[in-house]
Fold this protein.
Amino acid sequence: MSALKGSIHALSRVLEALELVGIWVSGVALAVVTLVITYQVFARYVLRSPISWFYDISEWTMAGIVFLGAAYTLRMRRHVRVEFLEEHLPRKLAAGLRIVTSLLALVYFLVMIWFGWQTTSQAYQRNFTSSNPPFLPSFPALLVLPLGGLLVCLRLIVNILNDLEVLVEHESPGTVHLSALGGSQASRANEGEPVEAGSGAAETPPLPLGTSCCPADADSASKHTGRP
């Protein structure tokens, strides 16, 4: 088990570095497409001379924005998902549900990698270029599809291994069950975030002004004042 944990940790560290590179490239692509769109609007409506390569650049950079940043989004669990069911399930059952959904996503992205690589290879072998000047080769833009899919597949595998570790772990005597937690705390626990044992308990209402929390002090005060 310790060897498995070490392998998962090592793979996760390498993958996090690759995801960081991907999200930076995705951010640069977003900045580029924003500048290109801004200049295209200026050139079309002010200079009356729109640029011909606008659509090619915008399509290629949009692919990089989506696919190179997908793995980082998945690691941060910021992708679109329905959390209502997971929040109300026990921790191990929620982990099992995440494993099933991750396996389904893994199959989809493996198919995407296969067809993406076939398309990229075909574009490289046949020297496909953009439809407008300066007729740039299109295979670098198509390559982000299998590369981004590969990063997502690796992240899905790491997530599956982490959830399998949750399924096989033994609960300690002080384990807090999700049934004793609120919805937001259950969601945090399902995602592996620490939750304090007493954070889900009801708060004790404040005592009235002048009331002592100690019974002995209350008896002493009643003797001096003559009031019960």
Notes: Residues 2-45 form the longest helix (44 residues). The chain is about 65% helix and 0% strand.
